[in-house]
Amino acid sequence: MRTASVERNTKETQIKAELNLDGGEVCISTGIGFFDHMLTAFAVHGGFGLKLTVNGDLDVDTHHTVEDTGIVLGNAFKQALGDMSGIERYGSFFIPMDESLAQVSLDISNRPFLVFNADFKQERCGDYETCVTEEFWRAFAVNGGITLHINVLYGSNAHHEIEAIFKAVAHAMKIAVSKNVDGSVLSTKGVL
C-alpha cells in the first residue's frame, strides 16, 4: 500500500500527516486559511488522500508553520514511495488560473533541487505571507528527494499565481507517482 504517516514535533510546530497516494479523505488544518485552501487543492487535484494537522507559532508569523509542513509532506511522499520502484518518475503540467499561468516539471529522483521563478506583487493572501511559498516548495523538494522546477510565466494576482503553482505541482506529482507498466525502477542505474 502506498501510504505514509509522519509526525514532527519541535518547539515551533507540531505536525501530523497521513498520506495515501491512491486517494482517500482530505482534511487539512494548519491555522492559516489560505494555506489550507492551497493544500486542499493540492490533494484534490493530485488525487491524494491527505489528513494534515498543524499547530505552529503563528504569533511569530507563518514561516515556521509553512516550511515545516513542506518538510513533513516531502517526508510523507518519500516514505509512501519507498525505493521509488514502479513509478513513472517524471511529471510536467501547466495550469492557467485566470490571468496567471504556472508551469511545473519534476523528477522524483532522490536528487533534490528547487528552481523557483515567481514574483508575487502582493505580500499577503489573507494571513499567508506570499514569500513563504518558495520556502514550502524547497522543504517539500529537499525532503521528498524531488527535483522541482516551478515557473510562473505571467500573472498579476498572487492568489491566482500561488493556486496555479499548487495545482500544477499536484498534477505533475499525480503523473510522476502513477504506476509504470512493469514495476521497475525507471533508471539506467537500476536504483534511484
TrEMBL record:
SUPFAM superfamilies: Ribosomal protein S5 domain 2-like. InterPro entries: IGPD_sf, ImidazoleglycerolP_deHydtase, ImidazoleglycerP_deHydtase_CS, Ribosomal_Su5_D2-typ_SF. It is found in: Cytoplasm. One of its GO terms (molecular function) is imidazoleglycerol-phosphate dehydratase activity. GO terms for cellular component: cytoplasm. GO terms for biological process: L-histidine biosynthetic process. Keywords: Amino-acid biosynthesis, Cytoplasm, Histidine biosynthesis, Lyase. Pathway: Amino-acid biosynthesis; L-histidine biosynthesis; L-histidine from 5-phospho-alpha-D-ribose 1-diphosphate: step 6/9. Its main location: cytoplasm. It catalyses: D-erythro-1-(imidazol-4-yl)glycerol 3-phosphate = 3-(imidazol-4-yl)-2-oxopropyl phosphate + H2O. Its EC number is 4.2.1.19. Pfam families: IGPD. Belongs to the imidazoleglycerol-phosphate dehydratase family. HAMAP family: HisB. This is Imidazoleglycerol-phosphate dehydratase. It comes from Eubacterium coprostanoligenes.
